[in-house]
């Protein structure tokens, strides 16, 4: 009888240890591959505003971007979007901007809207360029979703002599201010470059790695991103 009880105790201990080991094993995030493509146009403000703004006229820039994303790991699924951006540079090293996005998403009727306010600071160190960008993002969705998001991006670029593909590496942190407090829910790594096709025409290409966190079933995504830009100010 005692031997039988001892065997039961040993078996029970082994089962508990196995369950504990399984519980401690971290969940492997789902892996996805995505594609982002877009076309953008950058221009000055209408000439009719030149008299009103005076010397500050040249400090403003407007930009429109039409794009497609097979998925956006942090905010939405497949979508076609239009961004309208107004940018102002009060200082050489500082840029302020407001942007609004209209997005049509797969399986969702109507348009989704979001607005951002951003501040971007830049400092050159020889051929290296360090940049910090802060974004406050508001999505027009029901309470309980990711309505208020704060984004902090740190970027380092380098101007390689006699080379047209100058590299840029950045990391961006996403924080949600929700009804349950603050949540640091994602990190975005990005490595890319820009190539000038001709005067006023350029193409940007980058590899993006998004990593979700602070959720039960996170997703990690590798994204190929391509943007063609026409700068009317240079034409």
* Portion in strands: over 45%
Helices, by number, come to 2
| Low-confidence blocks of residues | 20-25
Mean pLDDT: 89
Strand order of the largest sheet: 1-2-3-4-5-6-7-8-9-10-11
How much helix, percentage-wise, in residues?
10-25%
Tally of individual domains: 1
List its traits.
61% strand; mainly beta; 11 strands; 235 residues; 2 helices; single chain; Porin
Write the layout of secondary structure elements.
Blueprint: H1 2-24, E1 30-43, H2 50-53, E2 60-69, E3 79-91, E4 94-105, E5 111-125, E6 128-139, E7 148-158, E8 166-178, E9 181-198, E10 201-212, E11 219-231
Parallel strand pairs: 1-11
Antiparallel strand pairs: 1-2, 2-3, 3-4, 4-5, 5-6, 6-7, 7-8, 8-9, 9-10, 10-11
Structure characterization notes:
This protein has 235 residues and is mainly beta. It has one domain (33-234): Beta Barrel (Porin). 11% of the residues lie in helices and 61% in strands. The protein has helices spanning 2-24, 50-53, and strands at 30-43, 60-69, 79-91, 94-105, 111-125, 128-139, 148-158, 166-178, 181-198, 201-212, 219-231. Strand 3 (79-91) and strand 4 form a beta hairpin. The longest helix has 23 residues, at 2-24. 6% of the residues are buried.
């Amino acid at each position: 009888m005692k031997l039988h009880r001892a065997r039961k105790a040993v078996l029970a201990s082994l089962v508990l240890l196995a369950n504990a080991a399984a519980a401690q094993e971290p969940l492997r995030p789902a892996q996805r591959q995505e594609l982002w493509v877009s076309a953008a146009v950058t221009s000055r403000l209408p000439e009719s505003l030149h008299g009103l703004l005076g010397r500050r006229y040249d400090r403003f820039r407007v930009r429109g971007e039409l794009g497609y994303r097979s998925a956006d790991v942090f905010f939405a699924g497949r979508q076609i979007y239009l961004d309208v951006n107004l940018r102002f540079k009060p200082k050489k090293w500082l840029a302020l901007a407001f942007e609004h996005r209209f997005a049509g998403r797969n399986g969702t009727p109507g348009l989704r809207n979001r607005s951002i306010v951003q501040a971007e600071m830049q400092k050159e160190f020889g051929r290296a360029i360090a940049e910090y960008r802060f974004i406050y993002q508001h999505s027009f969705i029901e309470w309980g979703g990711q309505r208020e998001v704060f984004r902090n991006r740190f970027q380092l670029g380098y101007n390689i002599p006699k080379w047209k593909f100058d590299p840029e590496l950045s990391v961006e942190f996403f924080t949600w201010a929700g009804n349950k407090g603050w949540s640091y829910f994602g990190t975005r790594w990005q490595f890319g470059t820009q190539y000038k096709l001709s005067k006023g025409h350029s193409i940007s290409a980058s590899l993006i790695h998004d990593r979700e966190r602070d959720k039960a079933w996170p997703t990690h995504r590798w994204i190929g991103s391509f943007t063609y830009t026409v700068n009317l100010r240079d034409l």
